[in-house]
Design goal:
This is Chorismate mutase. By secondary structure, the protein is mainly alpha-helical. The protein is built from 10 helices and no strands. The radius of gyration is 25 Å and the shape is globular. Prephenic acid (PRE) binds at residues 47, 50, 188, 216-218, 221-222, 225, 273, 276-277, 280.
């Protein structure tokens, strides 16, 4: 029977040059992937993402508005413990989602990152387009407080229907959509910086937040975003009724909306856009670290 050749020391130089070749090739591929992903990061592409995210946010608000405010969901005394039902729901769901690999994606940031279990999913090579020293900008605490203290009562009716678990589940979908949109400000800032580093560098070196805010602000774009979100709330949230002979082609009965479109407009103008800009500024402050 032929025996397999035992590796001899004389094979090591060949093995080493092979391994070295693999290393060079894989870092070449990595660089190519990085370059490709950076090429894909343009102001248009990040704005496309923000536009698509509006759909998710508007639909999530419409879903949450199915239930009244349901205050026991937010009151720790309802469960006789330290945490409210919604907080427990978010913590536990994030743990399951962490195991499923959700937070491998740099676009996703958990509200409760401490003690999250490791991902069971094999690592996926998400494009690493963010500047590492700036990538950790995090405003989840502000989003959490804003959502429960300011937003919720604006688009839910008063009252209580006992659907606290469903309420918490819908809150989580809203929170995750808002957080993804707002933290996407890191990608917007990176795209803007790459477009014109010479414009941003002096303000970054001076750590001048006001100058950065001025540089990245486009009032016309903000107005366009707010008007589009308002329209989405009108189109996605209208009550659809069919008369007997209605073919479904007409545009009648557009007066009842599940979420008031002007609230969607103000939600963006007063919270979503300002927080996205805050993330952009914080990101840029660390862009030369
Ligand atoms: O589209 C941009 O340029 C962004 O920076 C995003 C955004 C927004 O949050 O929608 C924020 C700041 C700008 O003033 C305009 C819009």
């Amino acid at each position: 029977m032929a025996s397999s050749p035992t590796p001899s020391f004389s094979m090591f130089p060949r093995f080493l040059s092979f391994a070295y070749g693999v290393l060079i090739f894989s870092s070449f591929c990595h660089c190519r992937r990085l370059q490709d992903s950076l090429k894909g990061l343009t102001l248009d592409s990040v704005r496309d993402f923000l536009t698509r995210e509006e759909d998710t946010i508007v639909f999530s608000l419409i879903e949450r508005a199915k239930y009244p405010y349901n205050s026991p969901t937010y009151d720790p005394s309802y469960l006789h413990g330290k945490f409210s039902l919604v907080e427990i729901f978010v913590r536990e769901t994030e743990a399951v989602q962490a195991k499923a690999g959700r937070y491998q994606n740099p676009e996703e940031i958990p509200f409760f990152p401490n003690n999250l279990p490791l991902s069971l999913a094999p690592p996926y090579k998400f494009p690493q387009v963010l500047y590492p020293a700036a990538a950790s900008v995090n405003v989840t605490k502000t989003i959490w407080t804003m959502y429960f203290n300011d937003l919720l009562s604006l688009f839910t009716t008063r009252g209580n229907d006992g659907n606290y678990a469903l309420t918490a589940a819908s809150d989580l979908v809203c929170l995750q959509a808002l957080s993804r949109r707002i933290h996407y400000g890191r990608f917007v800032a990176e795209a803007k910086y790459r477009d014109a580093p010479q414009d941003y560098n002096p303000a970054i070196r001076a750590q001048d937040k006001d100058a950065l805010m001025k540089l990245l602000t486009s009032e016309s774009q903000e107005e366009l975003v707010k008007r589009r979100v308002k329209k989405k709330a009108m189109v996605f949230g209208q009550d659809i009724t069919l008369d007997e002979n209605d073919t479904g082609d007409s545009n009648s009965n557009r007066t009842n909306y599940k979420v008031d479109p002007s609230i969607a407009y103000h939600l963006y103008g007063d919270w979503v856009i300002p927080l996205t800009k805050l993330v952009e500024v914080e990101y840029l402050l660390h862009r030369l670290d």
